[in-house]
Amino acid sequence: MNLWQLFQRKRQEQELDEEIRAHFAMAVRERIERGEDPREAELAVRREFGNEALVREVTRDMWGWRWLEDILQDVRYALRGMRRSPGISAVIIASLALGIGANTAIFSLVYSILLRALPVQQPEQLVELMQKYPTDPRANGYWSSRSYEYYRDNNHVFSAVTGLGIDNAARLNTGNTDDLTCVAEFVAGNYFQTLGVRPVLGRAITGADLLQKQDGAVALISWDLWTTRFQRDPGVLGRRITVNDKPATIVGVAPPQFSGVRANAQTTLWLPSDAKGSLHLIARLKPGVTLEQARAEMTLLFRFTVEERVAAESTRSSPDPQVRQLRFEMEPARAGLSGVRDKVGQKLVVLMAIVGLLLLLACVNVGGLLLARGTSRAREMALRLGLGASSGRLMRQVLTESLVLSLCGTLGGLAIAYLGTKLLLRIMDSGRPHERIHLLVQTDASLLIFCVAVAVCCGLLFGLAPALSAIRNEPADALRQSGRASGKRFHRVFGRALVAAQVALSMFLLSTGALFVAHLAKLKSADLGFRRDNVLLVSLDPSRSGYKPQQRATVYRELFDRMNTIPGVRSASIVGPSPLQGAGASGFGNFEGFPERQEDKRWISIAWAAPRCFETLGIQLLAGREFSFQDQAQPHVAILNQTLARRYFPKGDPIGKHVTLDHVTMTREPATYEIIGVVSDSNYMEIREERRRTIYLPAFRDGSVIAGTFVLRTGVDPGSVAGDVRRIVRGVAPTITTDKITTLNEQIDSSIVPERMMAALSGFFALLAGLLAGIGLWGQLAYTVTRRTNEIGIRITLGATPASISRTILLEASTIVAAGIVVGVPAVLWGKQLAVKLLTDVAGSTGTTLGLGMLAIAAVALLAAYGPARRAARLDPMEALRQE
């Protein structure tokens, strides 16, 4: 109904009033003219005219739009009811806001990672090509350029195949500000054509750009970079930028909705691929080709790729015995590359289920509170029925009140969802650099539809029981009883069932939350093989310092000496990578005196350490010695961890023996090393995995330095020496920038982001579930005390003590809680199985989990029952008898 229609409706109302008054006055005047008494004439006309309100209602029905007027009337009445009961309305709105806000926040992440399609042409046709080692937890998208070209040129199921490499920490300089660390994609020439993405300015990267090297590469920048750094200047085309210290020319700007092919990262720029390193492969299915058909052909084609033929021909010389066990996999890429989905997707689905249960718990809680309030309105509903209102009309009124409450809760929930989403994004972005999840969460039609659907479903769900309760009694029976007595049996049974269901759901959420929190505590307190307390990590970025390798080694040696003299620092050293920073290099080893079959070989992790490294980290030296600065000369030396030493020297002393490394990834290492020491095992690379076979090599060697992270053990708060570290770096090497300063504890936290997120959210939801269960139990008992006020007054008059009255209320609470616990036990057992599936090494036994859940629920029930029981025990019997 627009403004003109409202104006017309107002005129019709005025004309109707004038017509009724004119008709009434004319009829009275005619009777007076016939000689009747004016008062009698008016009464007679009123009797003939009938119900004036009914005439208005019938006339309005003939105009149409009656339904909208009725809805507005119901909404106004609902708002007046909320003002009359502000306390219970506030509790209901707060409960719904928390439940709806939590659901909306988690759904925004689920939608961004799992459901939102890439903003490209026909995203449902996109697939990702992957390969998987039998021991890997998931498939990976690491292909060589030869594999990409082979699949592109020899398949019959794809209309196009494209490849891309990703740099999560590219250094970008636009010429007018400081360097920006961003995500860059190095793409094949048909990347944008395959995806169907057209730049809004300039042109896309093409195959011809892959051959251009005279003036540097070309680059296509994101809409966000164009907006923030170039203020949407159309003259940006042709501008020169620097990416990883290499020049590039801007040739285009991506559309605003496109931010790359990963849900977890917002790509800032795209450059031509140099065909080096590994590629992720994305293909577009031909029309009519199914995923199964494509998978069947590509699995067959995979066996004959160049890499497979080479591996088959040189099995004996291949360093990796598992090459022949590689398996081809293909997944839909409608929502982008699958890495982040595999990492956190399942956990987000579990969280979505948990918050769904939380919302159901809130709805059950609100339904119980409204049902209790509805019993006091029994006489009102009976009067409405007696005056001619239909059952449907009353149900609509009650459901409208529920929907208004749900809408208010949704508005509050949106604010909570906004803050909650920001917090979740901050947690997910706090991981290690190669694992950070940068999500682009947008408020679009899907999110709004979800909020509206949740609001309507919640309103109908918790409003249905009060609506049915409002119409189930006969008007005459209801009018003969007080408001508290009306429908008391129905509410007593149904209300207790609702609270018992709340207890069961709360017990499940409390127990599951306890499992995730215990798992996080287990990770935080686990013996990692090194001391995590009071350790400061300082990462330097010497890439643009201008130092040659020998100069850099000299500078780092001086920094090493200066940092060991900082007050409060017990020891300082240099490592690469630092503990739990992520995987370093890896390779295969041939150990002196230990002939090993090729199929038995496994990758060995490689790390670099300076003198005093193991002392600083608290890694125990078991045999031999640590590195020294004299080890820069020949022969090259190495230190093994205990697992590696036991594998290759089970009965002998490895000191003085030699190991030859080959096929070392990420760096070129000399072939042969003399073993000078053995250190204890540690979770140096990954906290979740078993301790790997690890070899440590000297950071200072051949006049250069390999590692770049300083590690300082302090006797004071590590943060208090950060200023001294910065001053020393500026004084010794002003051209070297301090990339990052953090503590070892913070780095450990950054390696367990999914666990932290699950523990924080499930713990919060568990506490919220306990609070909602307590509110529900309190509401049920408070209603019981109100309903039985007269009975309690009689009991006190007859000699019942306050203690016995309190025991009666507490007994009812215990009965409800016991019923909920019985129902909740199977749910807790299922929750334990779910946690085991997600975490594999869950802390806490089933008995402990059940016990914690029962104790928590019992404590909540005791607190919730205290208020009603105390109120019942302190009732004045005379006042109680007068109320009835």
Topology at a glance:
Layout: H1 3-33, H2 38-49, H3 52-63, H4 66-84, H5 86-115, E1 126-132, H6 145-154, E2 158-173, E3 180-187, H7 191-195, E4 201-202, E5 217-221, H8 223-230, E6 240-243, E7 246-253, E8 267-272, E9 280-285, H9 291-302, H10 306-313, E10 327-332, H11 339-375, H12 378-386, H13 391-428, H14 445-471, H15 475-479, H16 488-525, E11 535-541, H17 549-563, E12 569-576, E13 585-591, E14 604-609, H18 613-617, E15 621-624, E16 637-641, H19 642-648, E17 658-662, E18 672-679, E19 694-698, E20 700-701, E21 704-705, E22 709-714, H20 722-732, E23 737-743, H21 744-750, H22 753-787, H23 789-797, H24 802-839, H25 846-873, H26 877-883
Parallel strand pairs: 3-8, 5-7, 14-19, 16-18
Antiparallel strand pairs: 1-9, 1-10, 2-3, 2-6, 2-9, 4-7, 5-8, 6-7, 11-22, 11-23, 12-14, 12-22, 13-14, 13-17, 15-18, 16-19, 17-18, 20-21
Helix pairs in contact: 1-2, 4-13, 5-11, 5-13, 5-14, 11-14, 11-16, 11-22, 13-14, 16-22, 16-24, 16-25, 17-20, 22-24, 22-25, 23-26, 24-25
